Amino acid sequence: MINVPKRKVLCFLLFLAAAVSAVAQPAWSKGGQILTASHEEGMKRARRSLEAEGYVITNAGSDFTGGAKGIHSAVITCVATTEGQLHVIIFVASAAVDGGVPGAERERLQAQMFKPGTSAPNVTQGTWDAQPNGLHGKTGDRFTLSFPPGGVLSGRLWGTDVYTDDSSIATAAVHAGLISVQSGGTVTIEIRPGQSAYQGSVRNGVTSSSYGAWGGSFIFVR
Fold first, then answer.
1. Which of 121, 162, 170, 201 is such that its CA lies 20 to 30 A from the CA of 8?
2. Is the pTM of this model over 0.70?
3. Which range of residues forms the domain containing residue 78?
C-alpha cells in the first residue's frame, strides 16, 4: 500500500472542499502507480496530464498539482523514493457517478502519467551486451541509453522492430539503423509486453533470428 504524507492529504482535502463545495457528498476515486522518473519529471507530467485531459490548473505545490474540469476536481501527488522511483497518487472527486465517473477520469489521468514528457531524458551509459529483461513488467516505461563507439555485436537478437527483452539493445539498435558499431550512439527504448512470435530479418548488415512466444519485449522510440 502506498502511504501519502499527511500534509499532502490535508492540501488535497482543502483544495477539494473549495472545488466541490456545492456538492454534499461527491464521489471519490483514488489510485496509485509507480513510475521510473525523477520528481521533477513527475511534476511536469502531472501538469501536462491534467491539461491534456481538459483540466484547468487551480492549485499547485512542491509535491502536488490540482485542476478542475466541469463536475470533476483532480489532484496528482508525486513522492520520490530512495530507490529512484516515483510514487504517484491520483485523487478525483466528481459531482456525479454515472458513466464510470470518477473512476474513468482517474484511469485516463493515470494513462497520461505513463507518457514521458518532452524534457531531456535521463541518459544511462550502456554496454554493448546490455539487455532490458531486468525491466520486465515496466510496460510503457521508456529508457534512454548511450552506447560507446567501437562496440561488438552480440548474437543475442530476436525479432524485427519488436525485439525480445533478452536481446542486446545495442545490436538491435544497429539492426534498426539507429546507431553504428563504429560511432555508437544514443537510443530510447519502450518496454512492451510479450508477443506470440518474433520475426527475424537481415537489416543494416545484422541478422536477427525468429522466435516463438516470449514474455517480454521492447521497441525503439524514434
1. 121
2. no
3. 6-113
